[in-house]
Amino acid sequence: MKRTFAVAIGGAAGQGVATPGNIFARIFARRGLHVLAYNAYQSIIRGGHTFLTIRTGPDRVNSFGDHIDLMIPLNQDTMDRHLHLLGPGAAVVYNGDSIKPGSAAEGVRLCALPVSQLTANSRNKVEQNTLCVAAGLSMMGVGFQPLEEVLVHQFKKKGDAVVSENVGSARAAYQYATEHFAPFEHALPMTDAPKAVLTGNMALAMGGAAAGVKFYCAYPMSPSTGVLHWMAAHARKAGIMVRQVEDEIGVINMAIGAAQAGCRAMCATSGGGFALMTEGLGMSAMIETPVVVIDVQRAGPSTGVPTKTEQGDLWQMLGAGHGDYPRAIATPTDIVDCFKLIPEMFNLVDKFQCPGIVLGDLLLSEGTATADPGELDFNVPIDRGELITSANGNGANGYKRYLFTESGISPRAIPGVPHHTHTVATDEHMEDGVLISDEFTNPIKRREMMEKRQRKIAGIEASVPPPELVGPRDADVTLIGWGSTKGVIEEAIELLAGEGVTANHLQIRWMVPLHGEAILEQLRGARHTIIIENNYSGQFARYLRSETSFVPDGHIRKYDGEPFMPHHIVESVKEQLAGKTNLSVPMHEIMV
Amino acid sequence: MATTEQVLKPVTLKEYKGKVDPDWCPGCGDFGVLAALQKALVDLQIQPYNVVTISGIGCSSNLPGYVETYGMHTLHGRALAVATGVKMANHDLTVVVTGGDGDGFGIGGNHFIHTMRRNVDLLYLAMDNQIYGLTTGQVSPTSRVGMKTKSTPFGSVEGPINPIALALAAGATFVARGFTGDQKHLTDLIKLGLEHKGFSFIDIFSPCVTYNHDNTYPWFKQRVKKLEDDPAYDASNLQQAFEKAQLWGDEIPTGRFFQRTDLPSLDQAEPVLDTGGPLALRELGIPPEITREFVTELM
User: Which residues in B lie closer than 8 A to residue A283 (C-beta atoms)?
Assistant: First the structure.
């Protein structure tokens, strides 16, 4: 089993949970360790309860795990709610002046810091956070200097006084912990390859920048707003126009307008905003202007739980917009994949002149992870497909925007090119763009144009690799997941191996095209198949069945707003292999 | 492209003639808007391939198919949002938006307001016939109280919106009203609108001869009175414009209500467009020293 270390920080919103989280993540990443962080929070700006888990280790961290090694409760509520989660070897570091410990399990260390003795400015309520971080790092065997560097980085904007105050109290707490608290059994490891720390939303935005997005627009909607924030902050340097639009209907239409004029255009939203975009998606398909839409899923239906995760929008994506039309839908499998997928999607939709949907979720978008800096390579292949950007001496009129071709792809001229004027229309049209919806209605032409567009589907399928089964073909159980569950399933498989259960793994990244035949081939001979998804009705299981007639032996589903933890999957697999049930719905134990 | 290839052959009406003839009802006001637009574009010698004509859905929204420019016949109510995207992606293009009162003030009302406040540099021609025509005659946002339509068989009890006052309030920098019954005046207004750097709105009385039997050509002809005929009228005075916008009865003002040129249009205000030309024509890549910075800040 890979060795990891998990820190959990809890408190009320506004109490400064994020800052110590960022400090830990940066220190770990600079130490060359991988990090994965998940923040369980509520839709409240001040108050309530948030609980951030940061897990680190020398190898890539697949999930936020099942165990907490160090807990830092910033208020009494956190201590009361979560102390029971801690097991032998774990420690709690807290402000002994204001927080009373409860009764902990055997082997859990309660490390109270005398905060008022250690800091000159005990009235500063968030300063306890820095003290707890310093004490924790001391116990992990991390030197003081990395903390000092990160504190300077974190607080430099607030001025020298704040920096020196924080560094001074941190030093006192670090010293105190070194003298009074025993170190953890294993000192935190170190590698010589520092990592970059980023959220999924940042990765999606950076992926757009790498793909050559020149126009990004959005309406703020959790949990996708981070894409807008990265874009807005970096727009001028990257040469990207960023617009906040009046609603998501305006967003998709504005993006399509920019795309029609020749830009790579992207927008992001969540399910409710996506609902408003669906008519626009059909326009993209009908006028054959490519656009990329990111849907970051949150717990629905309707406003649902804006701060909680779910994989509940799959059928919304599959059915978005009326009528039949080609589309591509992909689901990134981790935070680095959020970066990599966007340029792939742009190349695909530029080539096939249709809408592309990137289906993420809150777990990825607001989760934090590390990447090797080399993985964030902006120098990606760009294929704009058959795009006409100059007349190239072609003086003859007679350009046909929707020319019938074997592939269904017609060369696309952008406005401003002489001799290629034409009108694109959401009404059905002929090769030259003239409508056949009104005066010139014609069933033969309508059929031809429908078939031309739909021919692109075969090309899209051939352009995308089918999913691959990972692990021994004759495993005891085959776990099938999609999108963000990749990491937690991988970790569950390692845990199952430790308990003598062999598992293989099929993770779906491309929803459309699905490659149903290839999936059936991979699953042929599987001994016991289980589909794992973060929703109530088994949306992927139903989709897979509709496309392939495949029915799995069992399902593991979760729809409480929180992501899977590895043990949820392990226990569910075991009960299903024991024949106890074919539908497991694990209960989330961390209450936020 | 427009920037590299200067075609200097004079533009004539022939170049602007569409691939097909309009299928509007005989006598429809929209013919007059099409003719005035084509004439204005020729008078200003704008090359057809540098023009994008964008519409929503409705009778009048069929216009892009009847004029030989780059055209987009988009979704009901969405033309202004699409047009904003086009203009931001390539601010060298001349963008003209056409549509009806239902399209622009009903289903598209939100985009109408926000496009004006952003001062997007485009010309918006609203062909206002106070009725839904393509759906065979229902009440519209500009239909008057008491108007009998298929959806208000006993007379509408709702009051209309006032597009001119709305545009003034929303910050439009060029606000005018035209009438298809006066082609020369309409053409002049369209030329002023095309030349205005910023959002230009022209509400055009374009009578529906099939479904609106109240607001007919003769009805308008008796009432319209050009602001240009009043030497005391000052189109830079917002208060005066608001006052004139309230007139509806025996006298209905047409002409240029308001214009201001002291505000930057959105493309002028947007720093990303300061240098480097239209976004759509730029290289896709970002210089490596900048992308390195993007990664370094994460470490």
Answer: 74-75, 78
Do A163 and A218 reside in the same domain of the chain? no
At A216, which helix (H) or strand (E)? Answer: strand A213-218
* Count of domains for chain B: 1
Q: How confident is the model at residue A386 (pLDDT cuts 50, 70, 90)?
A: very high
CB A421 within 8 A of CB B70: yes
- Residue A134 sits in the same domain as residue A83: yes
- Report if pTM > 0.95: yes
pLDDT, tens digit (0-9, with 9 covering 90-100), for B7-17:
568 999 999 99
pLDDT confidence band for A394 (50 / 70 / 90): low
pLDDT in tens, A170-209: 999 999 999 999 999 999 999 999 999 999 999 999 999 9
Which residue range forms the structural domain that includes residue A445? 386-464
On chain B, the residues whose CB falls within 8 A of the CB of A374 are none
Kindly determine whether residue B75 and residue A279, on different chains, have CB atoms separated by under 8 Å: yes
Q: Chain B residues with CB inside 8 Å of A433's CB?
A: 19, 65, 71
- Is residue A480 located within the same domain as residue A457? no
ipTM above 0.85 for this complex: yes
Residue A18 sits at φ, ψ, to 5 deg, of -65, -40
Amino acid in the structure at residue B45: Q
Q: Name the nearest CA neighbour of B205 among B192, B191, B222, B229.
A: B222
Task: Name, in order, each residue with C-beta under 8 angstroms of B45's C-beta and a sequence gap of 6 or more.
Answer: B10, B11
* CATH number for the domain that contains residue A77: 3.40.920.10
Instruction: Give the domain CATH number at A542.
Output: 3.40.50.920
B5 in any annotated domain? no
Provide, as residue numbers in chain B, all residues whose Cβ is less than 8 Å from the Cβ of A287: 72, 74
pLDDT at A121: 65
Could you tell me if A254 and A317 lie in one domain?
yes
Nearest residue to B110 via CA among A223, A321, A275, A253: A253
Backbone angles phi, psi at A232, to 5 degrees: -65, -40
Stretch A445-461: mean pLDDT, rounded? Answer: 97
Question: Any idea what the CATH number is for the domain that residue B235 is in?
Answer: 3.40.50.970
Q: Scan residues 362-421 of A and list those with Cβ closer than 8 Å to B.
A: 371, 373, 376, 378-379, 382, 384, 389-391, 414-421
B1 in a structural domain: no
Q: pLDDT tens digit string along A323-355?
A: 999 999 999 999 999 999 999 999 999 999 999
Q: Can you tell me the distance from the alpha carbon of A328 to that of A290, in angstroms, rounded to the nearest whole number?
A: 11
Q: Are residues A477 and A436 in the same domain?
A: no
**Which of B70, B81, B271 is the closest to A422 by Cβ?**
B70
Find chain A residues with C-beta within 8 A of B49's C-beta: 415-421
Across the interface, of A238, A280, A438, the residue whose CB is closest to B23 is A438
Query: What contacts B193, CB < 8 A, 6 or more positions away?
Result: B123, B125, B174, B176, B200, B201, B202
How many contacts (CB atoms, under 8 Å) link A and B? 228
Provide the residue range defining the domain that includes B51: 13-296
pLDDT of B1 reads 42
User: Same structural domain for residues A203 and A328?
Assistant: yes
